Amino acid sequence: QSALTQPASVSGSPGQSITISCTGTSSDVGGYNHVSWYQQHPGKAPKLMIYGVSDRPSGVSDRFSGSKSGNTASLTISGLQTEDEGDYFCSSFTSGSTVVFGGGTKLTVL
Amino acid sequence: QLLESGGGLVQPGGSLRLSCEASGFAFSDYAMSWVRQIPGKGLEWVSVISDNSDKTYYADFATGRFSISRDNSKNTLYLQMNTLRAEDMAIYYCATNFRYFDQWGQGTLVTVSS
Description:
The structure holds 2 protein chains of 2 kinds. Chain A is mainly beta. Chain A is built from no helices and 9 strands. Chain A has strands at 9-12, 18-23, 35-40, 47-50, 64-69, 72-77, 86-93, 99-101, 105-109. Chain A is globular. Chain B is an all-beta fold. Chain B has no helices and 10 strands.
């Protein structure tokens, strides 16, 4: 199972919006509404930000939103804040009853 | 809360058993997973076990070498890792659920080196 494809890095200024893409295949992202997104700060465990393509866990800011079109899922962060800086990973359930992650995207808030 | 233990230094070809002790939630109601991360690199799903242990799934690299299990009476998840290779060196996290991972432990570092 190949990793999902994410851009290596994205950047934005405080207050702006950014979108991180996550491209897979019809056997993972395109075939199931089981895409999730994780935020990770240095030295910390990942934190679930979005699950089920677009659902937010309790306590996660509504500035974070998720969507999907075909084989590509997207995470949008609006009203960027400095604390949003970190690494973001997408994941998807697959047809092989496994889970595959993206390679990760480093978000820099300028 | 999830608390992993059992990581450490092991020689290539050796074995290690990781543990993950859960508290503060109904452990026996959740599927549980292991996810690993080479420091500074991406996340990689390892394995999952259903809430009552009747189903287990593994990543290709783990099939035949790793074995996931759980003891609901002890609120503990395990990962037995055999025939370890240099490329298995990573931080191993336990996490709740499978299709998404909503709670994570702090991770335990496995180092494979002679």
